[in-house]
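Box 3.1. Reading complex inputs
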Amino acid sequence: MKIVSLAFLLPLLTALAAAGQEGPYFVTYNSHLEEPGNLEIATSSTTGIPRSGQRFYSAPYLELEYGVTGRWTSELYLEGQSTWNDSTIFTGWRFENRFRPLKREHWVNPVLYLEYESVNEASRIQKEIVGHGPDLISPNSELRSGTNHELETKLILSSDVHDWNVAGNFTVEKNLSHNEGFEFGYSFGASRSLGKLATAENCRFCRENFVVGAEVYGGLGTTDGFGFGGAPHYIAPAIAWQISDNSALRVSPGIGLNHESNPVLLRFGYSYEVRGFGNKLARMFGARR
Amino acid sequence: MHKTIIIVMLFSMVPGMATSQNTSYVPDPKWAAPPKAAVRNNPLTPDPGTTAGGKKLFQRNCVECHGSDGSGLIEKHAADLQLPVVQSQSDGVLFWKITNGNPDSGMPSFSRLPELQRWQLVLYLRTLKEHIPD
């Protein structure tokens, strides 16, 4: 019980101890990459409210996102999971890279995404949903028994139209550990800032500090059976609050759209941006100013 | 095998961090706004409240490279925004440069900001020329 509570509260506590205008999405990626040289440290959690036969769980994860160049962002994830009346476990890590092939802003901006995952079947952060979604029934002792090495790619298409951002992702995942074919997933999101103009005052609750939106995401089956059937799907309103110049809070209550989904998927995230991290690190290694 | 992959990935991030900064500021002659973008006028009038909002946006998004007075940090090789070579550019050009960025030389795109906030930044940039020493 204590472990479960700790796993649930840890991201929020870290948030209280601890990014530009942060988008509200948890699953959908858009074309806005991390600024070069900046490091974003984010802690988030995905909490599943169970259906009959399922158990309450919370899956916290830590993200370290670094802007390698203006067109290349790398991200490292460490993730865990805690299930009510079961156990709290480490579920693995992920390393992702996003590349912008085009130099300028266009009507539609593509981004290429490549991720290596070393996670077990107990992973429930659901940063993306592919195939038929995570196993929400089996106990952790069974799910954690083997580690899967997976390669995931996404095609990210994103457009900034007036004050709106609209983005769509198509995901393909291949488990390198087992011959399961390919798994597919999708997500779409739309968001906009509440304030068109920035006010003169330094205020926490000004309209321009809030970005609101919604995303829809789910699985599309596998090469053995492509389609919407048998996979979880969610619709999720989302809000991001820019608390300070460096930190942002995001909240998104996802509503399950079918029986394969959790009825509600609550997501919280807090991010803190370390500006000029690359410069500071370079100086540590002897680079001259 | 597993540990080797982790070590290779972590070490691949370190040189990226150490070498990803601009090594020198050289104005990019290819970074030119299209004529249609260059002739756009700022829809905002420079009243104190709107300009002060632009200053707030500048402090949040631009100070890291251009410095609090816009003179450009040497270590970032960022443009000195007080210089005539910058101030002589039209509002439309500055807006286009803020929107698109020049990612290969370190200037990120700020298309994530609402359009009017980018025009507010242009308003504030115009106040920086007053700091030019005689």
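In summary: The mean pLDDT of chain A is 90.
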